[in-house]
Design goal:
heterodimer, A: 446 residues, alpha+beta, Helix Hairpins, Heat Shock Protein 90, 9 helices, 14 strands, 52% helix, rod-shaped, B: 217 residues, Rossmann fold, Arc Repressor Mutant, subunit A, four-stranded antiparallel β-sheet, elongated, phosphoprotein (chain B), transcription (chain B)
Chain lengths: 446, 217
């Protein structure tokens, strides 16, 4: 924060200084030139004025009365044959210039002179008027100082103003930073910084969106843990009660019965825990990369193999009508197997007496249908059974109510959706995937 | 003491039926709201689970209370949340118990709500020199402990709850036998006979054509 402020200040102050220095340089240069021009003009005028005086070309050397500005201007009047006719007080005795008319410079003693020479041939005189360059320089310096000193003082004031300006300009940034700083690490509330300047709005907005998503995820996690704990209470209560019965049973048959129930309940409870873990794992998966393909037919065959035993136990069969030899789906093969397997298991448990059919269809996306001969789920029940931990009205004991949630979580990364609909043969649970996740390979032989 | 249990988890249901049986209760058990509606009758108490496959036990409870069913109800709650318990009690439950629970606690609480329903605060019924302890299921006469069977205790307890009040044979049968049990036609008479042998003949009176009652002293 401070770093940004200092950076901005240095940048603005630096640029200001640069512009100021340029302006000062330019002013100094042009002022100097102007002063030279004006002073040169004064020399010319003074020389002409002196020449216009009625001064005899010969006679004793005159001393002109010292004028208030004599220290600045020195004047000599020479005859054309080289005799000094007159000079101003303070003027050096040596000739100020060589004699040629016009401007010239000369070093006399340790002083540098700027001289204008006016020649009046008719009267036989030569007038030389000169400025000491040191005096001129002094004048220019005084002038420059008078111009630049107030400007330099202004520069200091400007720097102070800039500093406070930058600070107050960046104040909203400071407010946002403070709002973030002061947050407890456990709150995921929106930042609530107002007013926010337009430039910061996207940042604050993005931050708030992220916080909202995090909050949603955290709430889902908390609900999940609460629900999971809740779901475990009932089987634990059953286990505890049966254990107590076994402990207190007086006759061996009662004890055996209780122990048998305990064994069954442990099996069911561990299945529940397994499904909870499976659901957590499926929900934790990142969005699927679109280049990880599963061969649909292989997965279907795998699922048939997985559940052949369960089907045979109930004198049922699993039939596949899946002609798609060459269709690949962009999904993790294990996830698809898990989803399809759960549906097949549901069909085996609830789907009446007939065989369970798995059908595939690949027009406009891919559909995998698991069809059973059962009554299915009434339309008004569908929303309920989709909810986590909700069992259908004819649920088998020991069902966890998690199967459909697992199915949905498993296919969600591949943009798959789960649908239920009546089928002419019975009831169909359908996994549907959009066409952009489906690839038909050219080598149909595999 | 015949009670109705409404619980959908079959293992827990079975455990409670057997366990409360060990505690001296006769338990009729059902797994859903529809069956519970059909089954509720002459029960001394109900153990009701909240989350049932065809709805919430709380709704059934409210329905019963509206219909004037005053049988004491103990709720089983898996969600150990204050809001749930408060709602349960507000809807007419007499007590609640969070899962998992102790069988002994369940039976103690059941006895307590049934006792409160019959207007008594103490767990002991005192009829002069005869003291019937619900918690210990024991009977004492003149300070002497008397051994009684489960059924004998149930009949004695049923009669002692309202001394002087006549209970018919079928009412007594309802109080002490579950649905599935075969009842021999003279079972109640046999139990009464044995009780009289243990407590003295005058303690339980026969009201001809009506049934039995217990005397106050």
């Amino acid at each position: 924060m401070t770093a940004l402020r200092i950076r901005l200040f240095i940048l603005v102050a630096g640029v200001t200084m640069l512009v100021w220095a340029g302006a000062a340089g330019w002013t100094s240069f042009s002022t100097r030139a102007e002063v030279q021009r004006v002073l040169d003009g004064r020399l010319v005028e003074a020389a002409r004025m002196v020449a216009a005086l009625d001064i005899p070309a010969s006679g004793p050397v005159r001393r002109l009365a010292p004028a208030p500005y004599s220290r600045q201007l020195s004047c000599q009047i020479w005859s054309l044959n080289g005799a000094l006719i007159g000079q101003s007080t303070g003027a050096p005795d040596a000739p100020l210039a060589g004699g040629a008319p016009g401007f010239s410079s000369r070093q006399i003693g340790d002083e540098q002179w700027r001289v204008y020479t006016h020649v009046d041939a008719a009267r036989g005189i030569r007038v030389m008027v000169g400025d000491s360059l040191a005096v001129r320089q002094h004048l220019v310096n005084d002038l420059m100082l008078g111009l630049l000193l107030p400007a330099a003082a202004g520069l200091v004031a400007l720097a102070v103003l800039l500093w406070f300006g930058v600070r107050s300009g960046l104040a909203p940034l400071g407010r946002v930073a403070r709002a973030i700083e002061l947050r407890s690490p456990h709150t995921l509330e929106p930042l609530a910084v107002e007013p926010v300047p337009e430039e910061l709005r996207p940042l604050v907005q993005a931050m708030d969106d992220l916080l909202a998503r995090l909050e949603g995820a955290r709430r889902a996690e908390r609900d999940f843990v609460a629900n999971a704990a809740h779901e475990l209470q009932t089987p634990l209560a059953g286990l505890k009660t049966q254990a107590e019965v076994a402990r207190r049973a007086t006759d061996p048959a009662m004890r055996d019965h209780a122990l048998e129930r305990i064994a069954i309940s442990v099996g069911r409870t561990s299945r529940l825990v397994r499904q909870l873990l499976e659901l957590a794992r499926q929900e934790g998966r990142e969005a699927e990369p679109a280049d990880c393909f599963a061969r649909v037919r292989d997965v279907v065959n795998g699922v048939v193999g997985d559940y052949a035993h369960l089907a045979a136990n109930g004198s049922r069969s699993i039939i596949t009508a899946c002609g798609l030899r060459d269709v690949d789906l962009a999904i993790d093969a294990e996830a698809l197997r898990l989803a399809l397997g759960n549906l097949v298991e549901n069909a085996l448990h609830h789907g009446g007496k007939g065989p369970v059919r798995i059908e595939c269809a690949a027009n406009d996306g891919l559909e995998l249908r698991v069809i059973d001969g059962g009554a299915g789920i009434a339309a008004e029940e569908v929303e309920r059974v989709r909810r986590r931990f909700e069992r259908g009205p004819r649920a088998m004991s020991g069902g966890t109510g998690l199967g459909l949630s697992i199915v949905e979580a498993a296919i969600a990364p591949a943009q798959g959706v789960l649908e239920f609909r009546p089928d002419n043969a019975g009831f169909a649970a359908v996994l549907r995937f959009p066409s952009n996740r489906v690839r038909i390979s050219s080598d149909g032989a595999s | 003491m015949r009670i109705l249990l409404v619980e959908d988890d079959d293992i827990l249901r079975d455990g409670i039926v057997v366990g409360l049986g060990l505690e001296g209760f006769e338990v009729d058990a059902v797994a859903c709201l529809a069956d519970a509606r059909a089954a509720i009758g002459d029960h001394a108490g109900v153990v009701l689970d909240i989350g049932l496959p065809d709805g919430s036990g709380l709704d059934l409870l409210a329905e019963w209370r509206r219909a004037g069913v005053e049988i004491p109800v103990l709720l089983l709650t898996a969600r150990d949340m204050v809001a749930d318990r408060v709602e349960g009690l507000d809807r007419g439950a007499d007590d609640y118990l969070g899962k998992p629970f102790d069988l002994t606690e369940l039976s103690a609480r059941l006895r307590a709500i049934m006792r409160r329903a019959s207007g008594r605060a103490s767990g002991d019924l005192e009829l002069g020199a005869l003291i019937i302890s619900e918690a210990r299921r024991s009977v004492a006469l003149d300070g002497e402990e008397i051994a009684v069977s489960r059924r004998e205790f149930a009949i004695l307890h049923a009669l002692a709850e309202r001394p002087g009040h006549v209970l018919s044979r079928s009412q007594l049968e309802d109080r002490i036998y579950g649905w599935q049990e075969e009842i021999e036609s003279n079972a109640v008479e046999v139990h009464i006979h044995k009780l009289r042998a243990k407590l003295g003949r005058s303690r339980i009176e026969t009201v001809r054509g009506e049934g039995y009652r217990i005397t106050r002293t």
